[in-house]
Amino acid sequence: xxxxxxxxxxxxxxxxxxxxxxxxxxxxxxxxxxxxxxxxxxxxxxxxxxxxxxxxxxxxxxxxxxxxxxxxxxxxxxxxxxxxxxxxxxxxxxxxxxxxxxxxxxxxxxxxxxxxxxxxxxxxxxxxxxxxxxxxxxxxxxxxxxxxxxxxxxxxxxxxxxxxxxxxxxxxxxxxxxxxxxxxxxxxxxxxxxxxxxxxxxxxxxxxxxxxxxxxxxxxxxxxxxxxxxxxxxxxxxxxxxxxxxxxxxxxxxxxxxxxxxxxxxxxxxxxxxxxxxxxxxxxxxxxxxxxxxxxxxxxxxxxxxxxxxxxxxxxxxxxxxxxxxxxxxxxxxxxxxxxxxxxxxxxxxxxxxxxxxxxxxxxxxxxxxxxxxxxxxxxxxxxxxxxxxxxxxxxxxxxxxxxxxxxxxxxxxxxxxxxxxxxxxxxxxxxxxxxxxxxxxxxxxxxxxxxxxxxxxxxxxxxxxxxxxxxxxxxxxxxxxxxxxxxxxxxxxxxxxxxxxxxxxxxxxxxxxxxxxxxxxxxxxxxxxxxxxxxxxxxxxxxxxxxxxxxxxxxxxxxxxxxxxxxxxxxxxxxxxxxxxxxxxxxxxxxxxxxxxxxxxxxxxxxxxxxxxxxxxxxxxxxxxxxxxxxxxxxxxxxxxxxxxxxxxxxxxxxxxxxxxxxxxxxxxxxxxxxxxxx
Length: 680
Ligand code: SF4
Prior knowledge:
alpha/beta; N-terminal domain of TfIIb; Rossmann fold; Dimethylsulfoxide Reductase, domain 2; 4 domains; seven-stranded mixed β-sheet; six-stranded mixed beta barrel; 22 helices; 26 strands; globular; binds iron/sulfur cluster
């Protein structure tokens, strides 16, 4: 059996895989992300390749159609809406599952040719707060960390990150490094005790959103104890004095930790030179997510613990190509190549490179607002690609209604029936993992190839090709005349080169002469280069910025705080992972973790059903009584959809509350009430 070298389609670790058409799956020992390791999800990929439930032909108004009619319908609906209502009357909602080539042409079409920035992505739910925090601190969305740093750190601080279930191979790498170096310390900061806490030397159970009080407290402690790097601050950082003054006004006990826990953490952090702070959704998915990111970055900048091996802040992304989407500007507040929509020179450079008729001068609608725009009637034509917002966004029932309110909806997907696809006027069959070719960028900026090892099923086509065919029908054939994904990748690399005159971080010159077919996993700008090693950042003065951050007011305790997240063996809405029986065996039904005291107060016994009521909906799930979740808090997985569990899917419960800077939904702190479910 010939095995094809490709990349896992699940999380942002981006593990290399050797895959065969017979379902053989092996970890790629030569891939620097995993060196042959895989997790349960990656290992079971071979069981997810059947065609059951696949969308194999286009559909128009619920009937099978040919490609010509389906593409004509999409192009005509978008052209008509733009003609009658202007470019901001249309929108794309895309996905971190798309490959970079798909993202590139979608962004080029919406921004350079339609002339709107109404393209946003489900990655908004994943890492938008980190993007915003990076830009505020560094001047660009630069991730300084590498996986290698995890193995060289003396102290790893995992904040709001259940790495053991959500980035399992990174967890495996840390566990292996810790076994070799018993002096390595791991601290897990999380309101919930998780599988990751078992690896940690210390689990610090903060209150929800207690991160800012904690990291402001750390900054204040560093200042009080002479542990700041004064030379680094003088030469490379602005804003330190007001930031420290603000931090000193806070009370670190608002984090929920005892004085002894705080002191132990502060002393360990300040006395350890090589500290990596890894953070993910527990930080990002918050009403104050961007501020949390900056509170963490402030501590690293204040001590110069950045730009060195084994040292630095490190945001790990949830999705396989969230990073690639950021690079090509596939978000409503970005242009392309890490450039800014609001900057006229940046706009001109991108428009000149694309030789395009237009370019938006203002940001578009971010995910939650985009669907509000659908509900309000502002959006007249919507194209959703490779994602299922009718169940995955907060206030999911409201989002489903909003989609129904749009006069024309196209959905590209691999599956025939999804909660979102059922609302479409036109369904476009896309190729899936193993059937399509392209590139993805993982959490450490490493670009790897996804390669096809199976034929395209039925009439399915790759997303980049579908987008280009619609663009051609809208009158822009020459600008979207790509024959292969390699052509798209080459233009993307050239576009980055053309805009490097602005001295930004996105230097992809290492890929300029690369053979696409043989492309090996490569970090940008170079495998051996470390961002910020020279102390140079991307603000106009060349310095990084520390930002004064205030901790949020303590939460009210009259309702439960519902945290949502992932199970170990499932991915998103289980479209793919739900096909593997052994993955389904891990946690087979929706559940809610509830503290024993809360369960007793509600007269809930093990295996009883619990009804959760949010402002916009309710859910009924099995009680899992455990001290892993603190009193007053609940946890439930977000994988089940309306189609899979009519009562047990949770995003209907959530209010569409977002971080005001990043627009990322606050999925960890939903306010709900709970009661024992009594069937009537
Ligand atoms: Fe795939 Fe992530 Fe598991 Fe690696 S850790 S095999 S990328 S799901």
